[in-house]
Design brief:
The chain is α+β, with helices and mostly antiparallel strands. It contains 2 helices and 5 strands; from the N terminus they run αββαβββ. A 3-stranded antiparallel sheet has the order 2-1-3. Strand 1 and strand 2 form a beta hairpin.
Length: 79
Amino acid sequence: YLARAVRILLDHGKPPQTVCGLVRNIGREGQQSGMCRLSELGEFDADMFTTVFVGNAGTKRVGGRMVTPRGYREIPCER
């Protein structure tokens, strides 16, 4: 199903270079994680213990991590 989902995203305009993350066995012994581009994601052998994250246009690789800036604007505090 993952390869099909990737095809749908690509067919609907998601850029192939979109940063994606994968984590298998989150919080369990043997936890593994990695990153790839959306164009490579469909080749990954995901199972029921794998969580897949698909970034947006602002997502970048920073220090070996997948980071999506939120761009929250600063709201002044009322006193």
